[in-house]
Amino acid sequence: MKKLMLVALATLFAVGCSSVEHERREAAERSPSMIGPQGPDGPAGPMGAQGPVGAQGARGAIVSGPAGVEGPAGPAGIQGKTGQTGAPGKVVVGLAGPAGPAGPAGAAGIRGDTGAQGSSSAGPAGPAGRSGPAGAQGIAGDKGAQGATLVGPTGPAGRSGAAGAKGSAGDTGAQGRVGGFAGWTSFREFWFDSNRIDIQASDSSKVSEIAAYMNQNPSVRIGIDDTRGDDLSERRARAVRSALIQAGIPSSKIRSGAYGNQTDRRVEVLVRSDN
User: Fold this and answer.
1) What is the residue extent of each domain of the chain?
2) 34-76 pLDDT tens trace
């Protein structure tokens, strides 16, 4: 910056010297011609020492010129993509202001006369409302006293079916383990499918019936007829015995033996009281 100021001052000095020389020449031209022609300029002397830099002048005022003619508008740019819609702001309900004081109650008006009683007529019944929800389950009542249980008489024998074709003679059965006992009464029968030992679904309720009867009559014993003595019949009798034990009947009250007339695919359960 200082160097630039020095160069500017030197330029101003040179311009000033040139102006003085120009005025001197014009004065010589206007004087009488007694003065001879000017001789050639001598060589310039060395530049004097740089003088001090003058103080900076006051800052000039800036004047804005008149606005130029407005140029034509350029073509519209390509429409940019629409930005995503921002998340909706939360709506906050302000606090309710304090309730104003209640105004004084106005004076009660004069009560009008009671109007004449109008005629009444029953309107049509409205539609039935929907049923309400079911109420809570009530407490179960006390169990009634146990009534006396008696074994009814044996029902009449059914009609005999048509005689089937005579089958081939079977092998002689094994010797029965227990002889017949007097006093046994037929109670329930279990039927089995051919060559099957599982109790049918239609006979499953008979097991619970026998167990309920035994609970009501503790002195009764059960006999499972095992007259035929072959392997399939014995397995069917054991299936009935196992089902009764699982139903809660003590095994000590169940016997197997020749108590009835066992036929093919049928196991008979009999009962007897020891009293």
Assistant:
1) 185-273
2) 667 888 888 988 888 888 888 888 887 866 778 888 879 879 8
DSSP of 252-273: GGEEEES-S---TTEEEEEEEE
Give the pairing type, strands 266-273 and 185-191: antiparallel
How would DSSP label each residue in 232-252? Answer: HHHHHHHHHHHHHHHTT--GG
Burial (CB count <10 Å: 0-12, 13-18, 19+), residue 227: middle
Name the fold adopted by 185-273: 60s Ribosomal Protein L30; Chain: A; (3.30.1330)
Query: pTM here?
Result: 0.35
Tokens of 181: 């006992």
From the CB of residue 22, how many other CB atoms can be counted at a distance below 10 Å?
10
CA gap 236, 257 in Å, rounded = 13
In a 10 Å sphere around its CB, with 0-12 CB exposed, 13-18 middle and 19+ buried, how is residue 111 labelled?
Answer: exposed
> Residue 214 in contact with residue 249, Cβ under 8 Å?
yes
Helix (H) or strand (E) holding 26: helix 2-30
Coil vs helix vs strand at 231: helix
Distance CA 99, CA 103 (A): 12
